[in-house]
Amino acid sequence: MDPTLRLLPWTTPDGRPCYLSADPDKKGHVSRLADDVEAMQMETAVKVLGHAVKVLDDPDSPPREVLFAGKRLSECLRDTVRVAESRGRRLGVEEDGDGDDE
Questions:
Q1: 7 near 90, Cβ under 8 Å?
Q2: Would you say which domain of life the source belongs to (predicted)?
Q3: Is residue 85 part of a domain?
Q4: Residue range of the domain that includes 28
Q5: Residue 90, SS3?
Q6: Is residue 94 part of a domain?
Q7: What is the pLDDT of residues 5-63, one digit of tens each?
Q8: 3-state SS of 5-68?
Q9: Per the confidence metrics, is the pTM higher than 0.85?
């Protein structure tokens, strides 16, 4: 992957990743927009996690509410992983892609 390409926090309508080719030392409009979207995604993840913990800790939570919490958690996890991947690339961190933490 070209290290000058920034992975953006959104995808194309068919789910493919979007990249920005820009000077990393200059903050253009799209770069600032991406920063704002990443910040919103992280804030949303924290809120969804707080809600999901309450739902999952309650043994009387209705199944539909548990399913909803699970779906929102998976969406937030996907977004958070994408933010981490994008930031890691900008920091020069290599991906090993095997999922192991060794």
A1: no
A2: Bacteria
A3: yes
A4: 5-89
A5: helix
A6: no
A7: 889 999 999 999 999 987 666 778 998 999 999 999 999 999 999 999 999 999 999 99
A8: EEEEEEECCCCCEEEEECCCCCCCHHHHHHHHHHHHHHHHHHHHHHHHHHHHHCCCCCHHHHHH
A9: no
Given the structure tokens 């090993």, which residue do they identify?
Answer: 96
How many domains, in total, are found in the chain? 1
Q: What are phi and psi of 17, to 5 degrees?
A: -65, 150
> What phi, psi does 69 have (nearest 5°)?
-60, -40
pLDDT at 21: 87
- End-to-end Cα, the chain, rounded Å: 22
Q: Residue 97: inside a domain, yes or no? A: no
pLDDT of residue 28: 87
88: amino acid identity, one letter:
G
Kindly state whether residue 61 falls inside one of the protein's structural domains: yes
Compute the distance between CA of residue 66 and CA of residue 53 in angstroms, rounded to an integer: 10
